[in-house]
Every structure is written in structure tokens, then in C-alpha cells.
Amino acid sequence: MAGLEDPRFGQFDPELGIWIRVTPGASYQSKAALFLDRDGVVIEDTGYLCRPVEIVLIPGAVELIAAANRAGVPVVEVTNQSGIGRGYYGWEEFQAVEQALALKLEQNAAAIDAVIACPYHPEGVAPWAHPMHPARKPQPGMLLAAQQRLGLDLSRSWIVGDKPDDLLAGYHAGLRGGMHVLTGQGQVHRPAITAWHPQGFEVWLANRLSDAAGLLELLK
User: Which of the residues are catalytic?
Assistant: First the structure.
């Protein structure tokens, strides 16, 4: 595995409080991004995933990411990593999982253009304890960092997630809307999402990530 200081595979930005990897030299036809939560949306949520062997892609995820790539829509993974915050595993394990995921996607002609992760948690261990870090979803810090690094138009962008915090991060960042899926922990949180009616932020209900294909037409 590449070293933690190799920018090709990501680096921790202490000022922003995030781990970030941006694909070098990538260019996009669209400035509107498709933001994706990872666990429960792209891959199965096994609980504090830290081993590449545990990666299981959710059906339809590869196809949608590949379609976004072909359409020139930037795909950005934004993931809370409370397992790091709680001291269950470290950045090396996280990076190993991300590299393995990238390889699985590459084998299917798909790629995530940027990965952003926040380790902070209210019950975290030092140095990751923080009552409400601005980068941890539902706060918008990871999405705002993506805007700065990729030059995105957040007002036209969408986020897909299985938890209210995913969509709330999009709302707080000024995204056009969010799609809630039933994979991962989606079944548990669907009632809360259904009862939420934010102004100026569209909420779509879907079964899984493959149902987000209609979003690509809005993002082109």
C-alpha cells in the first residue's frame, strides 16, 4: 500500500479536519456533482468497515457511478469515519479499504473522482473528539471542501444517502436536493425523511443507488 503521505492516495488536512483524495488531472463537463455516502449506499454497511475483504458493492452502484463518469459528472464520496474517531482503526486501514474499492470500480470502468472523510465524533478519542465538527455530517464541511477543490456548483448538485445526516449535510451546503435510499440503514430512517419538508431543497425517495439514474440528467 502506498504511504500515507502520497497525495495520489489522499492526505489529511488538519485545517479542514478531513482526509481528502482528488483524482489527479481529472476534468469534468459538469460543475454539478453527485455526492455519495459510502457505507450503506455504495457498499454494504458492515459496521466500522476496516478490511478490504469485507467490501461488498451494493447492486447498481457501479453502474450509476460509471454512467456519471461517462456523462462528465463529478462523483464525490463523503463519509463520516467514526471508527477512526473512536479508535477502532486508523488511516492506514481506511486507505486500504478505499484503494480496494477504487480497484473494484476500475475493473468495471467506474471511478470516484474525490474521496473526503471526517474522523471527528462527539464520543471520539484524542485527537478526534469534537462535539460538532464542521466537517462531520450533518455539517457541510466536506461538501464545501469539495466545492473549493473541484470548483463545483453546489446549487445544482445532489447527495445520495441512507441517513438523515447525509441529506442534512446537503441541505446545509446549499445543494439542490438529496435522495434517500433504503439500503444500509435507510429502512430505519425513512419515516424521518418522509416527514421532513425543507424549503429550497428537493427530497427524493428511492430504493437503492441505481434509482438515482434520473439525477444524472439534472447534473449534466
Answer: 37, 39
